[in-house]
Structure prediction request, 229 residues.
Amino acid sequence: MAKLAPLIAPSILSADLARLGEEVENVLAAGADIVHFDVMDNHYVPNLTFGPTICEALRKYGVTAPIDVHLMVEPVDELAAMFAKAGATYITFHPEATRHVDRSLQAIKAAGCKAGLVFNPATPLDVLKYVMDKVDMVLLMSVNPGFGGQSFIPAALTKLAEARALIDAYVAEHPGREIRLEIDGGVKTDNIAAIAAAGADTFVAGSAIFGAKDYAATISAMKAAIAAA
Ligand SMILES: O=C(CO)[C@@H](O)[C@H](O)COP(=O)(O)O
Ligand SMILES: [Fe+2]
Prediction:
């Protein structure tokens, strides 16, 4: 099954937040495709990051690239609606953080955004098959959510293959449907080929990109490794 064109999604969690607009501009100019925006509420995860006003500020600053909002919040619906108004393109959430997964997906799509589910390393993909018609993105965590800079959990490779098979089977029966398979956590230039080979088409990388001196060289190396996988 042909995969979608690969997308590199730098996580702004690892950016210099005092210069966020400039950092996002630089990373997009360096070849990034989509901006990964980690929202943490000090409740669903121990860390606390940024809300919809920062997303809106990036839009006002002139960012036109897709913004991929990864909600690590509980509950989901109120913040999802705020992010839809703030200019999010994708809004993904963790199924265990909402009481009604199908309703939350419907609400995100009704608000004009693409919707997705996020699965923690030890969370099974079970719910996915019941909501495939409402999902535009499946995001697999390859670290436990809450922090940048953690190491990739290798079991995510097996899970990627499992998710890839589910997506391909669904898309084969629903021509024209596009469902992205995103990986998030510990993605580096030296493991991205194996991750691509396992089935991912959208690659979040925070510390590997923003921690590098040369964003363009790092993103090019990642794209080359994916192309060769
Ligand atoms: O959602 C998260 C962490 O919870 C991620 O998006 C991280 O921000 C990725 O950072 P690196 O592992 O690439 O440094
Ligand atoms: Fe994330």
Summary: Residues 11, 13-14, 36, 38, 70, 143, 145-150, 184-187, 204-208 surround 5-O-phosphono-D-xylulose (ligand 1) (CB under 6 Å).
